[in-house]
Amino acid sequence: MADKAKQPAPLPFHYQFVAGAIAGVSEICTMYPLDVVKTRFQLQVGKGGADGYSSISDCFRKIIKNEGFGRLYRGIIPPIMVEAPKRATKFAANEQYKALYMDLFGMDKVTQPLSVLTGVSAGVTEAFLVVSFELVKIRLQDKNSAGKYNGTMDCIKKIYQHEGPMAFFNGLESTIWRHALWNGGYFGCIHYVRGMLPKAETKQGELGTNFIAGTIGGTFGTMLNTPMDVVKTRIQNQSAGVAKKYNWAIPSIATIYREEGFAALYKGFTPKVLRLGPGGGILLVVFDQVSQMIRKHLM
After folding, report:
1. Is residue 8 predicted with pLDDT exceeding 90?
2. pLDDT at position 258, please?
3. Of the candidates 175, 190, 193, 184, the residue with the CA atom closest to the CA atom of residue 287
4. From CA 294, how far away is CA 245, in angstroms rounded?
5. How far apart are alpha carbons 265 and 253 in whole angstroms?
6. Under 8 Å between Cβ of 63 and 40
7. Angle of the 269-297 helix axis to the 203-236 helix axis, nearest 10
8. Is 77 left (phi over 0), alpha (psi -120 to 50) or beta?
9. What's the 3-state SS for 85-100?
């Protein structure tokens, strides 16, 4: 199995930062419109009335027709700003936790449970970094905020003025749940799938293995964390001055289930999995390729 082979030493953090940044920005620029569609579905209560969205294509059509094509990229600045440290944290923290736990538990090779544990730990670490950027992105993506914010900096300024600095950490608990579940599923699946697939003999075969493993990992992680993502979106879109319906993650899941049914916990799942399934493959392939180039030319 592929994981039994000697693993290359982790790159120094500054090189992991570069590889993670390139991988993350490549993925987000390719797949971002699906993230906008996902958020619209997650914020839609019930069928959404006459202006509601009935399918992915209907959502794309209505956004372009009523708001313009550029609206599909509204809110992209915050995720791009955080993408470099976010993806560097995802991969670097996973590698560092792997080394820490292997030493702590006296292990000489990576196992399936260890892959899940390191992924969960990396996800918790990542959540603290991204929560504020996620909040700004959600506010900008909401169709009801179209005339409220004039852009990223205006959104940040108004949140600070009207809600205070701690508002940028609204939804931290649900963000931790979301990232812990996704990263645990993602890295755990990558380890498992790589072990099940035949060992690649060529560079093309290695690319294919990584894309398959990353895509399956991204899909499985999305299946695990979508209810927490729906809750996080609802929590972060609540402005000051109104009674907060959603607060903590588990009670909020119960509220959505009671009022809208189980299916509501998976609102936006299709555009989300269409983004993060292949997106997980893109992430792993680009990160691995950039890492190999760094090892070859810079180390």
Report:
1. no
2. 95
3. 190
4. 48
5. 7
6. yes
7. 130
8. alpha
9. HHHHHHHHHHHHHHHH
